[in-house]
Design a protein that fits this description.
The complex is a heterodimer. Chain A is an alpha/beta fold. Chain A contains eight helices and twelve strands. Chain B folds into three domains: 156 residues, 2-Layer Sandwich (Beta-Lactamase); 94 residues, Orthogonal Bundle (Helix Hairpins); 148 residues, Histidine kinase-like ATPase, C-terminal domain (Heat Shock Protein 90, 2-Layer Sandwich), CATH 3.30.565.10. In chain B, 54% of the residues lie in helices and 17% in strands. In chain B, helix 6 packs antiparallel against helix 8 and helix 9 packs across helix 10. The chains are: A alpha/beta, B alpha+beta.
Chain lengths: 229, 479
Amino acid sequence: MSRVLLIEDDRAVRTGLELALTRQGHAVDAAETGERGLELLRAAPPDVVVLDLMLPGMDGFEICRRIRTGGELPIIMLTARNDDMDVVAGLEAGADDYVVKPVQPRVLEARIRAVLRRSGGGSANVGPPPLERHGGLTIDRAALVVTKLGAPVGLAPTELRLLLELSATPGRVLSRQQLLELVWEHDYLGDSRLVDACVQRLRAKIENDSAAPVYIQTVRGFGYRFGPL
Amino acid sequence: MNPAARLLGEARSLRTRLLLAFTLLGVSTAVLVAGVDYVQARDVILQKTQDTAVQTLTARIETLPGLGATPPNQAELEEISGRLSDRDDTAIAVYRDRRSAGGLDTLPPELRAAVREGNVVWQRVSVAGHPVLVIGTQLRLTRPGGATPLPSGLEIYSVRSLDPEQLSIGRLAARAWLTGAVALIFAVLLALLAGRGVLGPVRELRRATNRLGKGDLTARARVRGTDELADVARTFNNTAEMLERHVGDLRRMESEARRFVADVSHELRTPLAAMTAVTDVLDDEAQRLPGDAGRAARLVSEETHKLTRLVNDLIEVSRFDTGTATLVLDDVDVAEAIRATLRARGWSDDVETDLPVGVVVRLDPRRLDMIIANLVSNALRHGEPPVSVRAHGRPGRLDIEVSDGGPGLAPDVLPQVFDRFYKADTARARSEGSGLGLAIARENARLHRGDLTAANRSPAGAAFTLHLPRPDSEPGDVR
């Protein structure tokens, strides 16, 4: 059972989602406003946050940023439209995934399980040794700790999982669609902007210069690859 | 247009007609004036010359001394000729067959005949290309007592060159030609000027009309002056202004209607989100609810799903209509993407595929998924097996064809098949889909700068083909 914090201003939607998520076995805290949501978050830290972007007062983007500065909690945003500005802005603010309203409960459930698995630990890769060094970057696959020049890097679960997948096969190109399947557990035809936004955030944390990346390189026409250094 | 027709067209043009009319008028006036002048002047000159010559001859004859013997001999004829000749005139004295030397070699016989009858006559003849005036008369014998003089049979001819007169007349002719030429130039210039005055506004109107015809409703003609052409230009401008206003109104109304649909769809979304969230609960409970309550719960759940699909499609359509639909592009392996679409909907076993390996196209995977899913779903529902998806890459483009083995589409249905809410089978009031699927699929294809077409295949079956442009890119650069 996982603890879900639901922040949604519309009463009917909030009640409906609370009902559905509770039935699927989650413990749900529901908040009507962003401020109340942050209070609940401090009082009882959840495992995942489901966040409506359009809120009165403090909006979803701001909440996203505050949660990101405070920790590495997975965030799934609810957007009323798959309107591209909203999605991009939400992903840049640090959301891990998004669903479009009206959302089928089982779709939301699948996304929640996927982000929870990401924060749960890296069991996917057994082959490589637990401690890897790539230039100034050290990846401990067992402890799920990444250090850069000896200093630990705070990575959100999705960012960490993306780094683990890419670094498992240095030099091999993975397409955005492959990464969506591997990291986000979406089917093949997902939104590649999830990958791009996550790569940007990851680069900002591990690269010396995000504009001239060394670790996460773009291969135009194919996707991304780790190195070669 | 062949050259002859073009020439004919030019001949009919206003400009040519104006030019011709002015030239004709100018030249005919000049010819008339100069011609009449020329003829009169020429006659006056010749007449004067003739009169002078005749007077001179007559006066000289008066001064001749009396004749000696008759008939006169050759020496006397030469002497008379010498007395009557001077710088300008050469006289010839003739008696029967005898004549003095010089002057003309042969005298015109009709002239001699007239002189013999006692008349004073003159004639212009041409000698070696030079015009010459010949005057002839007969000497008379004066009888004492004032009786009528008698003809003597001695003929006197005076030959005078008309070269100076010819020169003057030639100058006159040259002046007439010059006048004609100047008049012609003036006429052409005037015609061009008048043409510009008329044709300028006409050309301006034509330009404005063309722009209007091409859809530029702000096209206006410049109004110059107060003549009839200016009136036409003003009328044109008023009409264009009215048209622009009406079209503007229509566009505004249309965009308002579109925005209304978009707003309504968005407003419907929130309650639907709440309802959709609990459909699973309803489905679960419906099995346990007795009789009517269970059936009612199932109905609400099913219709909620349909309503959701409809509203989603409406929002999709309204985003195309308001121009807010955008592509989220990615480099996608087409075969892999189509297989994922079929796999995600559990169609992999029902659909045959013929997909080339490793064709990567830059497109919006979500929209490709929507297009393929819609076409395959239609083929499975309305057509008959075998349903197949084939892709073949060509230089610069990629064609994906979804076909079935059914009876195909009726010819009258084909052109309407992409219309919104169009239903081929009117008996079926509501089908599985929203009625917007094919319309959205085609909008999605066009958003990719491609197209979606429908056709019947021989021997049977309907085929929908998605055409996607594929710019020749060079993937593999490291950025």
